[in-house]
């Protein structure tokens, strides 16, 4: 079997999702043995041009150059996988979408005209077809390994689309929403993290984005009943995945 | 060769997106640029209007490699603004969390990003067949560092337990003791790392540079508020903006920092050693003494040695804190927002990180000011290249190019961080 030729690209992001590859300390030598890592500038100096069997893309698309690059990467790649909240939904960079670019540029730069940026930051699928999504901020190690394994075995990856609540139940984590009245986004957020926040005493803040068919209206009503002001409910939906239809709707109900 | 034309569009083995341009004509350096083309995400813009409780989680996402530093600096700034003094247990858990990041990040940088240059490989992956035990040692150390961050923070990257005025989960003594034994299990690896990096032939290069770091008379500080330099800067973090300024250059989306009236400066492990080495752990001091590094040292290439010494210190200091800690379940303390400005500094693995926020009376951000280690260092990287490039003129183009890249990699740059 020839090894799949793999590339790892970065756009507007923090590199945390790429780092998850290197944080697979126990599996790393096996991974690099099974894959032909052709392009990974953060870890390699000799980076080879396409075509690639699998392109893992991290980061939001937020500059004119980004758009050109992602179109070219799509052409060069058989399978294109968005990794992490930024690439899947625009992630935190998409928070700029609700402010005027000219204003936010001035908050940062004395000469804003020297810096090119788009009015918006979106996930990769706003510009090109995406074949797979590894969600989260950052992506989970287990999901990454499942994806790589499935690619090597030529089967569909077993990724979860149910809500974080299911993971809490599986881990027997006491529900923060019903028992403590904590404003937890778990009921509408995609699983995959292993309920990281609730199992550490924290309400989920939705970094994996919406689960399949989430009931955002009901979620909003629960937040209201807990005494959250409308502006806080908007912020809950307009966070890591405010660009996604479900969460957009959740925010608009209270905006 | 008296002329040189280097253009690296995309620097490898650094975090983020940048390149270098070097132009030498007839022996005279004409142009040096570190181009930062990383697309800015405008954190300082979209933070405005968000409430304080989101700020640490948002700013952690500035950097996937040093999220803990952003968590710490932002949390301290918020607590400073609201007049909150966290409990001694919280302070000690924060020190542990910060030190855990040093172990992970320093190991990553030494072995995976820098060492291949010295051993003649394009990557640590390529090194694995010839240097199997060395790569395995790196993975062992990195894993313990990551496990440590996950124990205190709930997750390796973008930890979740650290919040304003406390932690949502406190590790048990049994968990800390298990971590203690993992930490002591890599102590020999850390000492071997010091030995390895001190055996490398570092270029002889000692530019005149001002080094800046946190200062504390009683500890080797990782979180705090007093900044000192090797040229007399000695300020509280609230005075930061009276002394440290930024300018924008056309070739970089990252602003360039400078000290008013003086110029560029360096932050990072070498600056910390120069300013605080007397307060390193005993074994870290011994390890340092076993190397050829003599302090004060201004050779930026010696940063790799400083990094290795700091891993030894991080292990020792963590073990010391664990031994003195009898952790009690302690829910996060109350937070009463009020209008005002707060400041916080954390020593990220790659250097001093500054956060400041102005809040309205509801606790929403009205102004954010964040300066990452690589913003502090960027101007100095260019200054180093101006001084260093003439020494490469006898080399082949390929060699000169690699050496110039190494000048930049000395700083363990985190470009996404700098260009937040």
Q: If you had to describe this structure to a student in words, what would you say it looks like?
A:
Chain A is α/β, with parallel strands linked by helices and 255 residues long. Chain A has eleven helices and five strands; from the N terminus they run βααββαβααβαααααα. Chain A has helices at 16-22, 28-34, 64-76, 84-89, 101-108, 141-153, 164-171, 176-180, 216-225, 230-237, 245-252, and strands spanning 5-10, 36-39, 52-58, 77-83, 132-134. A five-stranded parallel β-sheet of chain A has the order 2-1-3-4-5. Chain A is globular, with a radius of gyration of 19 Å. With 420 residues, chain B is of the alpha+beta class. Chain B has one domain (43-405): Cytochrome-c3 Hydrogenase, chain B (Orthogonal Bundle), CATH 1.10.645. Chain B is built from 15 helices and 14 strands. Chain B has helices at residues 43-46, 55-60, 67-82, 88-119, 124-127, 132-153, 173-185, 187-198, 240-243, 269-276, 282-289, 303-324, 373-388, 397-409, 415-418; strands spanning 4-8, 18-25, 28-36, 162-163, 166-167, 212-214, 223-224, 226-229, 234-236, 244-247, 256-259, 340-348, 351-359, 365-371. In chain B, the strands form five sheets. In chain B, strands 7-12-13-14 form a four-stranded antiparallel β-sheet. Chain B has a three-stranded antiparallel β-sheet with strand order 1-2-3, covered by helices on one side. In chain B, α4 (88-119) runs antiparallel to α6 (132-153) and α7 runs antiparallel to α12. The longest helix of chain B has 32 residues, at 88-119. Chains A and B meet through α1, α2 and α5 of A and α1, α4, α5 and α6 of B.
């Amino acid at each position: 079997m020839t090894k799949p030729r793999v590339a790892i690209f970065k756009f507007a992001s923090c590199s945390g999702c790429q780092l998850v590859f290197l944080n697979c300390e126990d599996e790393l030598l096996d991974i690099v043995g099974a894959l032909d890592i052709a392009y990974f500038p953060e870890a390699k100096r000799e980076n080879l041009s396409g075509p690639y069997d699998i392109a893992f893309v991290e980061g939001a698309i937020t500059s004119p150059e980004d758009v050109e690059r992602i179109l070219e990467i799509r052409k060069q790649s058989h399978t294109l996988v968005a990794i992490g909240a930024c690439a899947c939904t625009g992630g935190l960079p998409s928070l700029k979408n609700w402010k005027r670019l000219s204003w936010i540029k001035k908050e940062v730069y004395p000469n804003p005209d020297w810096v090119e940026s788009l009015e918006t930051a979106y996930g990769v699928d706003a510009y090109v077809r995406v074949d797979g999504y590894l969600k989260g901020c950052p992506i989970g190690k287990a999901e990454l390994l499942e994806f790589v394994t499935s690619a090597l075995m030529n089967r569909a990856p077993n990724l979860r689309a149910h809500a974080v609540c299911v993971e809490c139940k599986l881990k027997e984590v006491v529900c923060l929403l019903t028992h403590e009245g904590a404003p937890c986004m778990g009921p509408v957020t995609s699983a995959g993290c292993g309920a990281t926040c609730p199992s550490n005493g924290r309400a989920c803040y939705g970094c994996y984005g919406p689960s399949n068919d989430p009931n955002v209206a009901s979620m909003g009503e629960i937040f209201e009943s807990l005494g959250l002001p409308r502006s806080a409910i908007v912020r809950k939906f307009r966070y890591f995945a405010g660009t996604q239809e479900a969460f957009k709707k959740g925010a608009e109900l209270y905006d | 060769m008296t002329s040189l034309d280097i253009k690296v569009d995309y620097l490898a083995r650094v975090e983020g997106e940048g390149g270098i341009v070097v132009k030498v004509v007839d022996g005279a350096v004409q142009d040096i640029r570190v181009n930062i083309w990383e697309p800015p995400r405008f954190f300082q813009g979209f933070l405005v209007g968000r409430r304080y409780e989101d700020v640490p989680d948002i700013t952690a996402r500035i950097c996937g490699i040093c999220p803990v530093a952003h968590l710490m600096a932002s949390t301290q700034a918020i607590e400073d603004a609201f007049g909150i003094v966290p409990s001694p247990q919280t302070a000690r858990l924060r020190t542990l969390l910060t030190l855990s990041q040093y172990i992970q990040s320093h190991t990553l940088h030494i072995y995976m990003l820098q060492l291949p240059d010295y051993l003649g490989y394009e990557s640590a992956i390529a090194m694995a067949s010839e240097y199997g035990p060395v790569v395995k040692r790196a993975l062992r150390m990195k894993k313990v560092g990551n496990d440590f961050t996950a124990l205190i923070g709930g997750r390796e990257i973008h930890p979740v337990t650290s919040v304003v005025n406390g932690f949502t989960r406190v590790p048990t003594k049994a968990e800390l003791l298990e971590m203690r034994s993992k930490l002591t299990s890599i102590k020999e690896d850390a000492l071997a790392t010091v030995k390895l990096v001190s055996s490398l032939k570092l270029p002889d290069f000692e530019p005149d540079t001002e080094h800046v770091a946190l200062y504390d008379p009683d500890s080797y500080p990782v979180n705090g508020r007093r900044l000192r330099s090797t040229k007399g800067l000695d300020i509280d973090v609230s005075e930061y903006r009276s002394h440290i300024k930024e300018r924008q250059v056309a070739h970089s989306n990252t602003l360039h920092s400078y000290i008013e009236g003086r110029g560029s400066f360096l932050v990072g492990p070498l600056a910390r050693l120069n300013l605080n080495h007397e307060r390193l752990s005993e074994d870290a001091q011994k390890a340092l003494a076993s190397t050829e590094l003599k302090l004060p040292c201004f050779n930026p290439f010696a940063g790799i040695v400083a990094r290795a010494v700091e891993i030894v210190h991080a292990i020792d200091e963590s073990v010391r804190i664990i031994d003195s800690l009898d952790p009690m379940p302690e829910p996060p303390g109350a937070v009463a927002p009020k209008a005002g400005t707060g400041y916080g500094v954390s020593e990220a693995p790659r250097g001093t990180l500054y956060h400041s926020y102005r809040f309205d009376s509801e606790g929403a951000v009205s102004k954010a000011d964040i300066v990452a280690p690589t913003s502090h260092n960027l101007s100095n990287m260019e200054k180093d290249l101006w001084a260093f490039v003439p020494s490469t003129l006898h080399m082949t183009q390929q060699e000169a190019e690699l050496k110039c890249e190494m000048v930049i990699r000395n700083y363990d740059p985190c470009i996404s961080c700098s260009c937040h």
